Amino acid sequence: MIKWLEHPEYVRFMKKIIPGHTEPEIKAAFKKKYGIDLTDGQIGGFKTKYQIKSGTHGGRWVKGQASFNKGQKMSADVYVKCQPTMFKKGHMTHNHKPVGSERINVDGYVEIKVEEPKKWKLKQRVVYEEYYGIKLSSNDVIIFLDGNRLNLDIENLVRMTRSELVRYNQMKLHGDNPDLNMSAVLLAKIKAMQGRKENEED
């Protein structure tokens, strides 16, 4: 057990290293400096005793947080030990998804990977573009006539502009009936067109 009051140099070092660092980083730094292995309890006790917070989340490293050894070069012997586990350029991670892979996003839409390294696209847009041989703009949206986001049959996909989609949603006429929904789409397109003409006349 370390008696902190008997080692003021330990206290000064801990006060300096704790802010912004995780328990593993603090342990590693203390071991490197003094050759002593600290326990989580000793670090926690020190924080409590001297009322110092690390600023990390539960002792975990957080995005944007610099490590205690940032800017330090790895020694030759450590490099040799770590080399077998280092990430190699061109090596694919275990969870890599090839182009053409599909996934369902948090909103329930199917996405397809279209380009490396991490470019995904809504599949309904890909299906529509390939079938009609066109390139959709950012103002184009593709809706599902039957309301099923997993039904990617081309007959179930309808192209609308964002302003038309606003009208479509405002009318609240759509449900799970494709025929009624198509009628609502046509009505939304007419209303959007009327709105554009009114704006042009003003």
Distance between the termini: 82 Å
CATH architecture of the largest domain: Alpha-Beta Complex
Oligomer: single chain
Mean pLDDT: 83
- CATH topology grouping of the largest domain: Homing Intron 3 (I-Ppo) Encoded Endonuclease, Chain A
What structural class is derived from the secondary structure elements? alpha+beta
Number of helices: 7
Shape: elongated
What's the story with the biggest beta sheet?
3 strands, antiparallel
CATH class of the largest domain: Alpha Beta
Strand content: 5-15%
What is the domain tally?
Answer: 2
Spatial sequence of strands, sheet with the most strands? 1-2-3
pLDDT under 50 segments (min length 5)? none
Radius of gyration: 30 Å
Write up this protein.
- With 202 residues, the protein is an alpha+beta fold.
- It folds into 2 domains: 8-56; 102-201, Homing Intron 3 (I-Ppo) Encoded Endonuclease, Chain A.
- Helices cover 42% and strands 11% of the residues.
- The protein has 7 helices and 5 strands, in the order H-H-H-H-E-E-E-H-E-E-H-H.
- It has helices spanning 8-17, 23-34, 40-50, 76-82, 123-132, 162-171, 178-201, and strands spanning 102-104, 110-115, 119-122, 140-144, 157-161.
- The strands form 2 sheets. It has a 3-stranded antiparallel beta sheet. It has a two-stranded antiparallel sheet with strand order 4-5.
- A hairpin with a 5-residue loop joins strand 1 (102-104) and strand 2.
- Helix 6 crosses helix 7 (178-201).
- It is elongated and about 85 Å long.
- The relative contact order is 0.07.
- The mean pLDDT is 83.
